[in-house]
Amino acid sequence: MQLRYRYRLHPTEQQRRALAQAFGNARVVCNEAVRARRDAYWQGEAFPTGPVSSKRLITDAKRIDERGWLGECSNIVLRQAIRLASNGFPSGATARSDRPAPERRESRLVVGPAQRAEFGHDR
To answer: Domain Transposase putative helix-turn-helix, which positions (predicted)?
Structure first.
């Protein structure tokens, strides 16, 4: 049995500001991770791994005055943003060869009720 739950949040004004700040910080870090990955691809270098990109995009960025506001947010949110950004790329693109290989899907034969009857399947 599958159940579905629906939740509705009614945050206070202070909670709203904290959520907006967390989402904004995650967006900035995610965009920086995508940019770093794209730059590494076009320069033919290996992509930055999780700990390296985490140190560069979060820890080092917090020490810069322009990005000091990243310290006001939880590190968990920022690390998850980096993880989500790296999951958006195909795993076959490790370094720039020519282009990343497209992900191929195997064609699946979908058999509907009419075809099942034709093939002699009852179910």
So the answer is: 1-44
What do you get for the CA distance between the two ends of the chain, in Å?
21
How far, in Å, CA of 122 to CA of 113, rounded? 9
Sole residue written with tokens 């949110």: 77
- Condensed to tens digits (0 to 9), the pLDDT of residues 18-27 reads 999 999 999 9
From CA 65, how far away is CA 69, in angstroms rounded? 8
Q: What are the angstrom distances between the C-alpha of 12 and each of 15, 18, 21, 25, 116?
A: 5, 10, 14, 20, 56
Residue 96 and residue 43 in contact, taking contact as beta carbons nearer than 8 Å: yes
Q: pTM of whole model > 0.70?
A: no
pLDDT at residue 79 is higher than 70:
yes
Token couple for 57? 């995009």
Q: Looking at residue 15, what is its pLDDT?
A: 93
Token digits for 10?
Answer: 């009614």
Say if residue 12's pLDDT is above 90. yes
Q: List the one residue out of 65, 103, 82 whose CA is nearest residue 25.
A: 82
